[in-house]
Amino acid sequence: MIRIAIVDDERAFLESYTHIVEKLFAKNRIEFVVQCFYKSEEFYHLLKRNYFDIVFLDIDMPEINGINLAADIRKLKLETTIIFVSSHSNLVFQSIHYAPFRFIQKDCLEDDTSEAIHAYCQQIKEKKNTIQLKIENGETYCFNLMQIQYFYSVRHDLFLVYSNKKIAKRLFPRAYTMDTLGKMLHEKGFIRIHKSYIVNFKYIHQIQSDKVLLFDNSTLPISRSNVANVKRQYKVIMREDDAI
């Protein structure tokens, strides 16, 4: 769930722009909730208590302007994505100090907002599809989950298997267990089919009573007592994937 804040002191614009933002996030099939702020001071007081993933900030506002709000966000070391929305294009260079994701000009509102939200949603989806893992040499790498077919364990050793080269890469000894990996991968499209196997749902061709058949015709064992649960998880993930 993406938490969005929109801050602008013009009520009419705030209302119409909220509709634009909601429409575009829905178009990109991202779950979200929007909170609007007519008074920048109200947003400022909520900053320390409420976390927002992304904020659309007007710059020219009474009380606290958008530049100062952005400075406060950065001082608090919040990982909030900042998008400035302004008719003052001359402020672009000043805004760069606060690392905005985009600077949207109000005279190109819909086109600029559409591009910004699409890019932001793509970034979210890409981040969801990666994971950082420590491998056997002690180094930490960022892996693309789309390229990992499954994880498996042999006693205390854990391995990941790439889909393209069928290479098994050993993870750092005792850094992970199948339980901890299962929790890390639970919302990333992986299913634990057996005490020793966690599989990427995208590579599952068929779930049988005693094994899982992958699209490359390889098979993995499945716990008989877990077949119904695995099938249920698979259906849920398939529905969620279709909604993205």
List strands and helices in order, with pairings.
Elements: E1 2-7, H1 11-27, E2 32-37, H2 40-46, E3 54-58, H3 66-75, E4 81-86, H4 92-95, E5 102-105, H5 109-128, E6 130-134, E7 140-144, E8 148-154, E9 157-162, E10 168-170, H6 178-185, E11 190-194, E12 197-200, E13 204-207, E14 211-214, E15 219-221, H7 227-243
Parallel strand pairs: 1-2, 1-3, 3-4, 4-5
Antiparallel strand pairs: 6-7, 8-9, 8-12, 9-10, 11-12, 13-14, 14-15
Helix pairs in contact: 1-5
List keywords for this structure.
alpha/beta, 15 strands, 244 residues, OB fold (Dihydrolipoamide Acetyltransferase, E2P), elongated, 7 helices, five-stranded parallel sheet, Rossmann fold
- Mean residue pLDDT: 91
Q: Which sheet architecture does the biggest sheet show?
A: 5 strands, parallel
Provide the CATH superfamily of the largest domain: Response regulator
**Per DSSP, what share of the residues sits in E-state strands of 2 or more residues?**
25-35%
Number of helices: 7
Secondary structural class: alpha/beta
Give a structural overview.
The chain is of the alpha/beta class and 244 residues long. It folds into 2 domains: 2-128, Response regulator (Rossmann fold); 130-243, LytTr DNA-binding domain (OB fold (Dihydrolipoamide Acetyltransferase, E2P), Beta Barrel), CATH 2.40.50. The chain has 7 helices and 15 strands. It has helices at residues 11-27, 40-46, 66-75, 92-95, 109-128, 178-185, 227-243; strands at 2-7, 32-37, 54-58, 81-86, 102-105, 130-134, 140-144, 148-154, 157-162, 168-170, 190-194, 197-200, 204-207, 211-214, 219-221. It has a 5-stranded parallel β-sheet, sandwiched between helices. A 5-stranded antiparallel β-sheet has the order 10-9-8-12-11, sandwiched between helices. β6 and β7 form a beta hairpin. α1 crosses α5 (109-128). The longest helix is centred in the middle third of the chain and has 20 residues, at 109-128. The radius of gyration is 23 Å and the shape is elongated. The protein starts with a strand and ends with a helix.
